[in-house]
């Protein structure tokens, strides 16, 4: 058996892989672009654009448009199929960061064209490689995040037909991954996140898996709005959609349920908060239920704030929640006792200037950026030097 010291050293070396550099690059570049959007400071955008050029465009440092070697661990040269999954956060880079940079001309026309060519080549690899085909057929959240990648990239490269195809495919997954023909106890169960084939209980990370599955569909629902696809209303059973059934069954503020055994000390329960907000916005039936407190949750997580701006504005860089996810969400202080839920979706980050509370939202963002960067120099120091190519 390896000693604890040797295992810690091995884990430290594993954290220095391209996988972690990739996720940190996506997360930090998105933060920099949003910081520019909210403050007007060009140094944030210039640093974000430099990261994009280094990672995708410069021949000496760029990543090749595939993920064959993404998830290789120290002292193990065999790639793992999870490599494609590590690109799941690309939606936040494409739908927020790069669009902000392009609209501000921080990437010139030639660079924009080259970047779209890079992602077209990456999509070709995803659809033609054995790794991509296996990830596409994954029956759990990994398959849904494959769709997230394809939809966000197709939107970015203006391939409407492909975008619609994968949106429809993701909606079809709902029927295979959410139980809707069982007794009320199991109605809405994300069965492939909780059980393996043969009905064996999958306890190791099923809290994590349920959050990721719902998070992937929530992302797809936002991506699909502009294309006329309403995932939250798809496949109703007893006038309640599949995704709303799944939200009620999984989110631990709507009903009493047990926690997955192995996640008791490692899972951040506050990751349920954004999903709780989104389910209340789209699922009318869950608004009728009294708030439930499950005793197994950490005390600070048992009562989500009614104000979304009192919730964490960033989560872990591998947790598929975009930084500053709550910017632009509507909140009426006079209705603090109950979370206001409107018929219209929350505005996208790119439309914050049109939001009814845009001024207060921008001021909040400036205050938090100032608190995190009192010297005003994180435009240069916020990121590592991502110059190691894949």
Give the arrangement of secondary structure elements.
Elements: H1 4-14, H2 18-39, H3 42-57, H4 90-103, H5 109-128, H6 130-136, H7 141-156, H8 160-177, H9 191-194, H10 206-225, H11 242-250, H12 272-282, H13 358-372, H14 378-381
Secondary-structure-derived class: mainly alpha
Number of helices: 14
Element-by-element helix/strand order: HHHHHHHHHHHHHH
Cα-atom radius of gyration:
21 Å
Describe the sheet with the most strands.
Answer: none
- The helical percent reads 40-55%
N-C termini distance: 32 Å
Q: What share of the residues does DSSP label as strand, in percent?
A: under 5%
Q: Low-confidence segments, ≥5 residues, pLDDT <50?
A: 1-12, 339-366, 371-390
Mean pLDDT: 79
Number of strands: 0
Shape label = globular
